[in-house]
Design a protein that fits this description.
Layout: H1 12-24, H2 29-35, H3 40-52, E1 56-59, E2 62-65, E3 73-77, E4 80-86, H4 92-106, H5 109-121, E5 126-127, E6 131-140, E7 143-153, E8 161-168, H6 177-191, E9 196-202, H7 206-214, E10 218-229, E11 232-242
Parallel strand pairs: 8-9
Antiparallel strand pairs: 1-2, 3-4, 4-6, 5-6, 6-7, 7-8, 9-11, 10-11
């Protein structure tokens, strides 16, 4: 399923099943049977229809929302081997840790907010009638060392835009991981019909600003004294790229 695909279920029980899976990240069929007021005799049938229509998939005996995102890619740079792939629900803890580490080091307010949201919801990927959210992760020895995240409201007038965050923990910078993550995220955004991708960072995060400018992002505006860290007011730099 692409994020541009309209959610259509054809049956109220299928909608209930999808919404439960979407809001919980990954569930077992037994949990669905135990929790939802759905006719048990029809549960397997509805799950089969949702799988057939590309709305859900099965991984490790659990049901989860299916979003077309490509496969795993492998890279090597100066002795560092890493993979970039779509995030999975089991990446949540490592992903939150990576985002928090980068946010604390570089004052990445939007990134910190993303970590707070997914840590609270305990769900990575979202696709419902209000919002869509996608993550790709970079892993070294199966440990999450970086991410790219895209989030979009399901509003017609903003349907062409998505917010992006990207980061790599300090230990693994300088190996092209951030550039590959950014490319993967923008490629996916283009394939899903987005036209404009935006991001906002504090003016003190000069590394992030320079990184995005190097990849053809432009500064659209600056909001003066938008952040307050301790007793210090910091401008917000609003950046974007058109696909």
């Amino acid at each position: 399923m692409k994020l541009s695909d309209k959610l259509e279920f054809g049956h109220e029980d299928r909608r209930l099943i999808y919404e439960y899976i979407e809001s919980h990240g990954a569930v077992t069929p037994k949990e669905l049977e135990r929790t939802l007021r759905v006719d048990p005799s029809g549960l397997k049938h509805h799950i089969a229809i949702l799988k057939r229509d590309g709305l859900i998939e099965v991984a490790d005996d659990k049901l989860l929302v299916s979003i077309e995102a490509g496969t795993e890619e492998e890279f090597t740079d100066e002795g560092v081997d890493y993979t970039i792939r779509p995030a999975r629900q089991e990446d949540l803890t490592g992903l939150v840790g990576a985002i928090r580490q980068v946010s604390e080091e570089k004052t990445y307010i939007v990134g910190e907010s993303v970590a707070d949201v997914i840590d609270h919801e305990e769900v990575l990927l979202r696709h419902n009638e209000l919002e869509s959210r996608m993550f790709f992760v970079a892993c070294v020895n199966r440990e999450v060392v970086g991410w790219v995240h895209l989030s979009a409201p399901e509003l017609e007038k903003l349907g062409h835009t998505a917010e992006l965050t990207v980061g790599v923990i300090d230990e693994y910078r300088g190996h092209g991981i951030g550039s590959h993550l950014l490319h993967r995220g923008l490629e996916w955004a283009g394939e899903n019909g987005f036209e404009k991708i935006y991001n906002s960072v504090p003016s003190t995060n000069t590394d992030a600003i320079q990184f995005l400018e190097t990849h053809d992002w432009e500064i659209e505006a600056t909001r003066a004294k938008h952040y307050k860290l301790g007793d210090t007011y910091i401008d917000e730099v609003m950046m974007a790229v058109r696909l």
